[in-house]
Amino acid sequence: MNEDRGRDVSWWGRLTAALSGEPQNRNDLLELIQSASERGIVDAEALSIIESTLQVSERLVREIMVPRAQMVSIRDDEPLQDFLPLLLETAHSRFPVLADDDSDEVVGILFAKDLLRRLLVDHQDKFQLKDYLRPALYVPETMHLDRLIREFRVKQSHMAIVVNEYGGVVGLVTLEDALEQIIGDIADEHDQQDEEEDALIREISPGEFIVQAITPLDEFNECFETHFSNHDFDTIGGIITNAFERLPLRDESIQLGGLNFLVLAADSRMLRQLKVSVLS
Predict the structure, then answer these.
(1) How far apart are the first and last CA of the chain?
(2) Cys-Cys with 28: which of 23, 126, 208, 268 at CB 3.0–4.6 Å?
């Protein structure tokens, strides 16, 4: 044990000595720490964390947020039976709840644990989503990440809604997103499954694919050897919505370019996920 304490003191002494040049600015400090790493005083992982910590104050929320189009959200007029499967499938812990007037207004945040706990004792016929909502935390997209982390700590929150200069919702950001900029990816038991499910194009059986509606047309055309034009639309979701001449509903299908497109997920604003089958 005394040897361990001696090593700790020695390590601290060497680090103190390495930094004794009194850096005048952030770059000087970074150079000293990098020098300490090269001399074996600071290991590579510690160096990476220190460098990321110094850089986090220069990065903005909009660089790490989940864009509005990719937010998993709920409408406040959705029946429980419609969105409960979403809670179970995504395994997310928090969901933004949007107003029922097709606007981007966030009326609150639904904690999955609050809902599931109440469902154990309450009858579903009495369910009112508004009874389970918590206030949303709003942050500007231009906020620096060090301020974001402080805001999360002060407000004791793990999720924030990101707004632009006009107050419009442009995305969401979580405490985990911010901390990962310092310490790297925080893996959990759902990460591998989430990565597979979030892939833009995922083959589920020969000739059958799950495709995210936000898949860029160039990527879709390359994968399926199709020739959909990107002159008017950027994503396959835009092509399919245009073909229906309206926003399609779940379980509706259409055939285009030798492929069958089955709508797996859509909300009142946009198409989200498709099952694509190659026609023989």
Answers:
(1) 72
(2) 23
